[in-house]
């Protein structure tokens, strides 16, 4: 897509914006006394052909067949109808070459006019645009509104100094406070203890965003591990995407962050992986001590920081003892393993160790 077409598609001025719409200046008798180039482009009449003629020569309430299309009837009649057309009047415009266009119009009275002026005195301004264009524009606005208020994906915009300038509702929930409370803060102030765990990328938020700003290349599905302010003390994992925001001339405005919390999904996947690994590695021998070692090896450190496996003496020696006797109740420790630096204390108890 070319830069020109990109700029065009990113133009969020509405079709009824006076800088884009077909604009007509009317006097108190609805005579055309002003005719914009956009009006000439829409209807095919130049200003010389339009000035001095009644508005009804160009806009009518009904088409030649006498029936409005279904979408226009729904928009103009009672009931919710297409939300984009609420507050706008629907007309049929006749073009110079005989075509009929369904258009939405809006009227703005001029200050101090109120029908008091005579013929030729500006009384109000009417703007018009094709209904189809208005519906298309409203769908884009609805998308933006949904991203800002309804999307489950956290969205944030950082300026070129990497200070947060805007966020959506999902991001505010994650922060546990309104945007006004953290606007202007740097990323590392919000998630100072977190880092990216995806290999091949900078570990810090600032490093990744600076890379995107400098290169213009977006990055997708980076995994960030940290603790949100709304849930301190508990690690979360996000899938993040970053892309540079630019104005219509290609100048960088900042970086947009999309972040979706995948903590629960990640933990489920970790458990499934652990179960698969356990099924592969545990039970390779019938020896109790070997099986206990396999359990400890699999469980540390993805499942536990320390694992100690104690079994009854009879399970190891094959000896049987009277139920409830000291011999029956005595335990042997057949395996023990701890993650480096875990420092988990032994709970103690009458446990002997098995002889190697």
Short descriptors:
single chain; 356 residues; alpha+beta; Beta-Lactamase; 6-stranded antiparallel beta sheet; elongated
Could you characterize the architecture of this molecule?
InterPro entries: PAS, PAS-like_dom_sf, PAS_4. This is PAS domain-containing protein. Pfam families: PAS_4 (PF08448). The chain has 356 residues and is of the alpha+beta class. It has 13 helices and 15 strands. It has 3 domains: 133 residues, PAS domain (Beta-Lactamase), CATH 3.30.450.20; 110 residues, PAS domain (Beta-Lactamase, 2-Layer Sandwich), CATH 3.30.450; 72 residues, no CATH class. The chain has a 6-stranded antiparallel β-sheet with strand order 2-1-6-5-4-3. The chain has a 6-stranded antiparallel β-sheet with strand order 8-7-12-11-10-9, sandwiched between helices. Strands 13-14-15 form a 3-stranded mixed β-sheet. A hairpin with a 4-residue loop joins strand 7 and strand 8. Helix 10 packs antiparallel against helix 11. The protein is elongated and about 115 Å long.
What is the strand and helix layout of this fold?
Layout: H1 3-9, E1 22-26, E2 32-35, H2 37-43, H3 47-50, E3 59-60, H4 70-76, E4 89-94, E5 100-109, E6 124-130, H5 131-149, E7 154-159, E8 164-167, H6 169-175, H7 179-182, H8 187-190, E9 195-196, H9 205-215, E10 219-226, E11 236-246, E12 252-261, H10 263-281, H11 288-299, E13 306-312, H12 313-317, H13 326-329, E14 331-338, E15 351-353
Parallel strand pairs: 14-15
Antiparallel strand pairs: 1-2, 1-6, 3-4, 4-5, 5-6, 7-8, 7-12, 9-10, 10-11, 11-12, 13-14
Helix pairs in contact: 10-11
